[in-house]
Design goal:
The protein is α+β, with helices and mostly antiparallel strands and about 250 residues long. The protein has helices at about 25-40, 55-60, 80-90, 100-115, 120-135, 140-150, 155-165, 170-195, 205-220, 230-240, 240-245, and strands spanning about 5, 15-20, 45, 70-75, 75-80. It folds into two domains: about 5-90, 3-Layer(aba) Sandwich (Glutaredoxin); about 100-240, Up-down Bundle (Glutathione S-transferase Yfyf (Class Pi), Chain A, domain 2), CATH 1.20.1050.10. This is Glutathione S-transferase family protein.
């Protein structure tokens, strides 16, 4: 369920919903959209990732990955955006964001977990195409040494940052492999959306919330979405929703 016991005990006294997030984080976008769809009040704790505000001892004590988002719900800490939005939809009944049938709900989880399981491929594509050429997203040796000491929770994420911040960075093969994974995901989506309005069932769901932020961030890296014509109608329907405007557009820098 993504629930953890924080070492930073200060958050356990929080009342209501508190979200640690960042403007351009695709995972944070998911949670903001879900909160808006549910009509829930929440307190914002906005972090500047470029300034390393997610890498402080204080924040690692809340989220042992040092990433956003983190939701604190009446003192209960939940990490991983897929788990967060699933928990929100189960706990807060107004405006259900899941299909009615068990079969369609399983389809919803398929799409949610596909996005979660392939998040490092998306990060590789983004960092490789935006951060690597400019070098602006690389950490200093001292910052990396500090990160290596703190990051003991997600070793795959640690390896990702070690590779990106090495002298070699990502290779052409790394980028090609990441691109193949992403291409496969979007081809599956395009096939589904050829004859369906939504990714799971007959209505907007957590599956759609999980994937729409990927289009936002990958567009910045000039990913060729024109190769997937059936995504266009789906995308246009979502970006007109108030939750997208309030949960994504309103937070963009």
């Amino acid at each position: 369920m993504g629930i953890i016991i924080p070492t930073n005990k200060s958050v356990e006294s929080f009342k209501g919903l508190h979200l640690y997030h960042a403007n351009m984080s695709n995972c944070a976008m998911r949670v903001r959209i879900a909160l808006e769809e549910k009509g829930l009040d929440w307190t914002s704790h906005l972090l500047d990732l470029m300034k390393g505000e997610n890498l402080t001892d204080e924040y690692f004590g809340i989220n042992p990955n040092g990433v956003v988002p983190t939701l604190v719900d009446d003192g209960v800490v939940i990490i991983d955006s897929a788990d967060i939005i699933d928990c929100l939809d189960k706990k807060y009944s107004p405006g259900s964001l899941r299909p009615d049938s068990e079969q369609d709900e399983q389809q919803m989880y398929f799409w949610m977990y596909l996005a979660r399981d392939n998040h490092l491929s998306i990060k590789t594509y983004m960092y490789g195409n935006l951060g690597q050429p400019s070098g602006k997203m690389k950490r200093t040796p001292d910052q990396m040494a500090d990160y290596q000491k703190k990051q003991t929770y997600d070793l795959a994420l640690l390896e990702f940052h070690e590779r990106f911040n090495s002298n070699e960075g990502f290779t052409e093969e790394d980028l090609a492999n990441a691109t193949r994974v992403i291409d496969d995901c979007f081809q599956k989506m395009d096939d589904r959306l050829r004859d369906n309005d939504w990714l799971a069932g007959d209505s907007f769901s957590l599956a759609d919330i999980t994937w729409i932020p990927q289009l936002v961030i990958l567009k910045a890296a000039k990913y060729p979405f024109e190769d997937y014509p059936h995504l266009e109608k789906w995308k246009n329907a979502i970006i007109q929703r108030p939750s997208f405007k309030q949960g994504v557009i309103a937070w963009l820098p």
